[in-house]
Every structure is written in structure tokens, then in C-alpha cells.
Amino acid sequence: MIPIRDAITSRRFPAITVSLILVNLLVFLYQSYLATQPALVNDWQPWEAEELSPPPAFDPQAYSLHVRTGKDPSVYPLSASDAFIAQYALVPAEFLRGVDLPPTIPVPIWLTLISSLFLHGGLMHLVGNMLYLWVFGDNVEDAMGRARFLLFYLLCGAAAAMAQIAFSPSSSIPLLGASGAIAGVLGAYLTLFPTARVLTLIPIFFFVRLVAVPAVLVLGIWFALQLFNGVGSLGVSSGVAWFAHIGGFLAGLALVFVFRRRSAPLVLWELLGRRRSGS
Prior knowledge:
The protein is mainly α. It has helices spanning about 15-35, 45-50, 60-70, 80-90, 90-95, 110-115, 125-145, 145-165, 180-190, 215-230, 240-260, 265-275; strands spanning about 1-5, 40-45, 75-80, 195-205, 205-215.
């Protein structure tokens, strides 16, 4: 199920949502530019000293090539784009140790909780995240106000990263992407607008259909998939940070109580309350 748009019109221009999308696009363009630049040389000896293996963007083939050619096996070329990701993405093993290993960043390592939210591993990764932010972000921003929505977004992203770290504390694979923060937006949207109709693209074998379905169904199925895949990834290496999605969504469900305007009703809980009372 791919959401295309919802039926709720924003009361005012969603400046923060649009700004977040633009910043993500600009950072991705910069990553793409770096991919065209000459490779850097990175020294992996500090990683070996910290017993973190493999290092971010580790390339076993390139490493073994240096061994065969008699070069120092602790030093090999690293693309400028991979170096940028290794710097500003969140590396659990580094973060928990408080150690910033090469390539280092000029800011405290805890800021990678935020910087990692603006990096993406590819075009489809970026497009998928920005589509969800565009469809659901404007109404949540409306319900919170611009400043509070921005803080809410960043806190959900940080909570999502911490959730993933809790399940992979020794990982040296960089965490990157806006999906954890956007999962928080989805949790807030579900709480505030569960009955809103969402125009959704549904593939059925070789055909696709556009169907308007309630947000509670779209987002409920999305969260169920995250849980299913998260449980399935336990004990194995996964290229998707499922627990970041789960943690971000749950953070959004909780933080919406704090960040919403008082005039924005918590519709989901009101509906559940009525059902319990039998009214």
C-alpha cells in the first residue's frame, strides 16, 4: 500500500514539512556530488584498536586486494560519499562508546542522532521517505504548530535511533535515513486523524488500484509489517532498521500528547474510549 494523498486540507502552508523535504533533497544532492569525487584514503587501525569490526562502509574485496598486493591492509581507498556517511550517520558501536573513529566529524558524536536523519542510502530510500512525510506531515504540523512540530520530529528521530541501538548495540553499520522520525509523524497522525481517508495505491498481481481507505487501516498495516519484519530480523543482519521504525512510531504515539495544540483532539483514544463504554 502506497499512500498518495489524504483528504484533509492544511489550514496553512506546512513550512516545516516542506523545509524538511528540501533539506533532505539538498543533502542527497550533496551525497551524489561526493560520489563523483576522488576516493579518500582511510586508516582502519583505530577501528581494530577499538575492536569494532567491520568498520562503516567496509569493503572486504578492497581490503583483500591490498593484502594481495603487499600494501598496508589497514589502509585502503574510501569513496568521498561513503566517508561522509561514515562521519554523519549514527554508528551504534561508536555512539555507545563515545568514540568518534576515523573519518571523524567536527561536532560532538551525539549530534549524529540528528545528522543521520538527513542522510539516505539511495534515491528510492529518499523518495519513499519524503512521500510519507509529504502525505502525513502537513496535518500533524497543523495540529502542533511549526516550532513544536520541528522539535517533535527531531525527538522522534532520536528515539527511533535509540530503539535500534538497543537491539544492535555493537553494530558498526551506519544508521541513516528520515524513516524513524517520519514513523513518529505516522504515530501522531494515527492518533489525531484515524478516520481520515487516504488515497492509496494498491498493487494486485499485475494491476494497481487507487483506493481511499481510512488512515487507521493504512498505518495499522504499516506498523504491523514493521513488527513482523523486526521480530524476523532478530539475530540476523538486516539492511533495514526495523526497530527504528517501531521505536519512532511508538514515540510519536506518546509525544503527540505533549506537542499537540489543546484544540486538536486525540480522536483515536476518544473512539477507543467510546467503544469500551459501549456508547
